[in-house]
Amino acid sequence: MATFLISTINPVDGRVVKFRYDSSSSRLVDADSGVSVVPLQAGVPDGTKATHSSSAGMAAKVSPSVLKISLGLSCNYSCSYCSQRFVPHADSSNPDDVEGFIEQLKVALTTPPQRIEFWGGEPFVYWKTLKPLAEGLRQHYPAAQFNVITNGSLLDAEKNEWLDRLGFSVGLSHDGPGYHARGMDPLDDTEKHAAIMDLYRRLHPQGRISVNAMIHAGNPSRAAVQAWLQERFGQNVPIGEGAFIDPYDEGGLASSLKTPAEHVAFRQRAFAELRAGLASNFAVASRKIMGFVDSLRNARPATALGQKCGMDRADNLAVDLHGNVLTCQNVSASAVAPNGELHKIGHLSDLASASLRTATHWSQREHCTQCPVLQLCQGSCMFLQEPLWEAACDNAYSDNVVFLAAAIEFLTGCIPFYIDGDFHPDQSDRKDIFGQLQGESATASKPVMHPTRVIPIFPAPLGSNESAVDA
Fold first, then answer.
1. Please, are residues 263 and 233 in contact by the beta-carbon 8 Å criterion?
2. Share of the chain above pLDDT 70, in %
3. What is the reported pLDDT for 16?
4. Higher confidence at residue 454 or residue 161?
């Protein structure tokens, strides 16, 4: 059990109000009265409803509801924080692999997948393979949802028509003003810009396209990203992804938050932008905030919580065109995980024997079991270890504690500023969320500043349209 005392301030009258939160049973109660902030949903037994499969044991793979197909890791761009940048490439996929792969799927899959995702590298580097593969799978799985993520630089009229006709949903990778971390912006090229906008106009009315942005130390403002993308795609541009990056190598570490001051500055900025309504196009914001509210309504126990990527689930499957079962779509069959195990964890011919030896479930990490944002974070990347995982954990905490604070303000009208309780000893500096106590005692009886001074940092109620103040 991990319990926390969350001190909040009422921005209207400056009163300090305290709540007790149990991250293992998803209960948030008034510290004085013991009354739950969110009534338990009718018909839900207290603490027993599981909304995710319990996966601490990393169950064997079964016929998937989500099938992720890795075409290979080649890409025509080189993002500085890319999770695949230094992953060894396995044997390349080619059109000759398609027929045999589909035959393997037909034997291995006992039920049709609900969703099929096509992954690179850059998937359209593999156009000659992607085209017959998707057409063959559409014939065999006509009801499956098709998804692809692309940097958009290789799109043209033919590919756009094809994506539309086959019913694809598309994520366009673009970081707005932070695109310099990826390379040359395809929107600066006349032909590429025209192709991207043509696809956007085709799919946007059907809700089948988003612009996917990543947040990192060099691109920390969701408000700046949203404004940049709105200027080019329109006010209602849907923004996917949107979380702070996980670092997979030195490039990712360089793009991570490093000092306590950097973490505090990011949290202040991110929370101000949320409250001012300047990050409302980011799907991650509503998903995280309302997901936390739902965890309280359903009293979701931590034992029912899976990893954030979903790849610990038995019915989420990543494979390459040679039939190799992989840890996830961002690795190859020849790559080795940080713990020394091969990322090839099995084969389509024997799914039941696929074993996720490459990963560590959050329930096996002390830092996760003693963390107040567990229900929002869901354990960061499951195969990272040591310094890379520690940096990913730090990034994820600063990102998710902002959504936790926004959710609590949404529910109570009070702004969290201090969290005390069962933190891992290495993470006691996380308690002062927005750096307002400046060395006060751990009782967090009051902020150092007069309560009215909270207002310039957090200038508007959650969801309003007033301008945020940069931290």
1. no
2. 86
3. 93
4. 161
Give the contacts of 118 (CB within 8 A, at least 6 positions apart).
Answer: 69, 71, 130, 133, 134, 146, 147, 148
The whole-number pLDDT of residue 88 equals: 59
Q: Provide mean pLDDT across the span 359-372.
A: 90
- Cβ-count burial of 235 within 10 angstroms (0-12 exposed, 13-18 middle, 19+ buried)? exposed
Q: Rounded to whole angstroms, how far apart are CA atoms 216 and 220?
A: 5
Q: What distance in Å separates the CA atoms of residue 452 and residue 52, rounded to the nearest whole number?
A: 42
In the prediction, which pLDDT does 143 show?
Answer: 97
Distance CA 456, CA 132 (A): 57
399: helix, coil or strand?
helix
Distance CA 296, CA 449 (A): 31
> Helices marked H in 166-212 — which ranges?
190-203
Name the 3-class secondary structure at 8: strand
Selection from 9, 3, 2 nearest residue 418 by Cα:
9
Is the pLDDT confidence value at 49 over 80?
Answer: no
Residue in 54, 38, 26 with CA at minimum distance from that of residue 372: 26
Amino acid at 107: V
Asked whether the beta carbons of 301 and 48 are under 8 A apart, the reply is: yes
- At residue 59, the pLDDT reads 63
pLDDT score of 54 more than 80: no
Amino acid at 14: G
Helix 260-275 × helix 222-233 angle, to 10°: 50
Q: How far, in Å, CA of 358 to CA of 339, rounded? A: 7
Q: Half-sphere exposure of residue 419, counting CA atoms within 13 Å on the CB side? A: 30
How does residue 43 score in pLDDT terms, banded at 50, 70 and 90?
A: low
Q: How many other CB atoms are found less than 10 A from the CB of residue 353? A: 12
**pTM, 2 dp:** 0.89
**How far is it, in rounded angstroms, from Cα 59 to Cα 335?**
22
Annotate 328-378 with three-state secondary structure.
CCCCCCCCECCCCCECEEEEHHHHHHCCCCCCCCHHHCHHHHCCCCHHHHC
Residue with tokens 């060395």: 439
The phi-psi region of residue 260 (left if phi > 0; otherwise alpha if psi is between -120 and 50; otherwise beta) is: alpha
Tokens in use for 36?
A: 């739950």
In this prediction, residue 251 carries a pLDDT of 86
Nearest Cα residue to 333 out of 10, 87, 130: 87
**381/308 Cα distance (integer angstroms):** 8
| CA–CA distance, 176 with 330 (Å, rounded to integer) | 23
Q: Do 3 and 22 meet the contact criterion of CB atoms below 8 Å apart?
A: yes
